[in-house]
Amino acid sequence: MNKTYDNQHTNAFEATIDLGMRAVRGFRGGLTDDTGSREENLAKLRRALDEADAVVIGAGAGLSTSAGFVYGGERFQRYFFDFAARFGIRDMYSGGFYPFPDAETRWAWWARDIYFNRYVPAPKPVYDELLRLLEGKNLFTITTNVDHQFQRAGFDKSRLFYTQGDYGLFQPVSGTPRETYDNETWVMRAMEAQWFIRDENGVFRVPPDRQLAMRLPHDLIPVSPSDGGPVTMNLWSDDTFVEDAGWQRAAARYGAFLRENAGKRVLFLELGVGANTPVIIKYPFWAMTAENPDATYACLNFGEAFCPEAIRERSLLLDGDIGEILSAL
Length: 329
Known about the structure:
Blueprint: H1 11-26, E1 31-32, H2 38-51, E2 54-59, H3 61-66, H4 73-87, H5 92-95, H6 103-118, H7 126-133, E3 139-143, H8 149-153, E4 160-162, E5 165-172, E6 181-182, H9 184-193, E7 197-198, E8 204-205, E9 231-235, H10 245-260, E10 266-271, H11 282-291, E11 296-301, E12 307-308, E13 315-319, H12 322-328
Parallel strand pairs: 2-3, 2-10, 3-4, 10-11, 11-13
Antiparallel strand pairs: 1-12, 5-6, 5-9, 7-8
C-alpha cells in the first residue's frame, strides 16, 4: 500500500482506481454474498469500529436514498407535478436530461432540482446517525454523491472528497476556465421567481393554490461571472467536468490519508455504492483490503451486498436499509 500512494498529489486518487481495476481482474474464486448471519455481521462491524485505527467511508447513492432523497414517487410529484403533467417527466433524474423547449424552462427545472436535493435537510436523520456512530474516529469520506449532506450533518469538510461534483456549483459549459461558481444566491432567487413561498423555517414550499411558474425571467438565466458565458452543473458526465482547486486539494488529502494509514487497522466502510460507479469506491476498497492484512471491508447495501471470495474472511456484508442498520448498531 505504501508503494501505491507514493505520489502526494491528485493522481493518488487515480492510482486507487488503477489498483482496483487490476485487483478485480486478478481476484480468484468469484463473488460471495455470505459472510455470516446478520447478527454475526453486526457484531463484526461493532468490533471493527472499536478496533480501527482509521475508517474510510465510501458513500454512494444508496446512502442518500436511505436518508429520504428519493428522485421519484410522492416526493417528485410534490415539487414537480406541473413538469410531470406538461412534459410527462417521471422522476428528477430523467428530468435532468429532458430537451426543454427553452433555457428559461430548463433553468426553472434545475433551480428546483438543485434546491430540493442540495439546500434542504435530508428527510431522515441517517447522515446524523452515521456521524454520531463515528464520533471521535480517525475518518475520511469519499463519495460520488453530489447533495452536500455530509457537510450539512457536520462531517469535517477537510476530510471529504466529492469525486463527481456538487449540486451547489456551476461551471463553464466548455469546461474552461477550470473554475466553479457557488449557486446558492441564484437558486434562492430562482425559487422565488417560480412563486414558491418560505415557511416558518425558511424552507421553500409549494403555495396552497399550487400555482407555480415553469419559466424564469430571461435575466435570471445563470452565466459565468468570469466572461458571461453559458454555465452548466458541476456534475461529472464527460471530460468537460471541472476538477477545480477545491477538488484537487480534496483528492490530494484523500491520497495523503491512505498513505498515513497504510498497514494499519483500516475499516473500509462502503455505504450504498451501486453498480454505476464501482471503479471509484467499490473496486479500490476491495483491492486495498486485499493488500492490507489488517484491513476490514464492510458493505452496507440494499440488495447489493457482496465481496470477492478472496477477502471474505476479512469482510462483512449487511443487506438492508442503511438507516435501519445504523439504528441496529
